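Model it.
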Amino acid sequence: MSFGKIAFDEIEKNRSQLWQLAKRIWDNPEGPNREYNACKWSAEMLEAAGFDVRIGAGGLSTAVKASFGAGSPVIAFLGEYDALRGLSQKTVTWQEPAVEGGWGHGCGHNLLGAGHIGAVIGLAHEMKANNLPGTIIYYGCPAE
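Modeled.
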């Protein structure tokens, strides 16, 4: 049996949704501890994939903890989605702020959050299909 194919196939199946999430977060940059939309959109995608989702993890209103499965091993992924001041950027390959001095994702946090969501969704499908034990956790991390 070739492990990994199910996960890769599931990520590919969700490619469009993951890209839309990353782009939506890019288009709506939110600074540290104000990532209310990014948090909500990430949580919705994880809930739709069958994860047990809790917003407000660790007492932070824009943190997400999403879990799938039970037992060991525990595999965790850290996704970011906060924007940084001064990194506003249009979706072009040269430096061109959307808002001069504004918040933006020139740091790629929009991609880290969405990419890790894809990874945990793929891994969950792999574990389910192969009846593998373990817990997958996605932490959506505000403010770096």
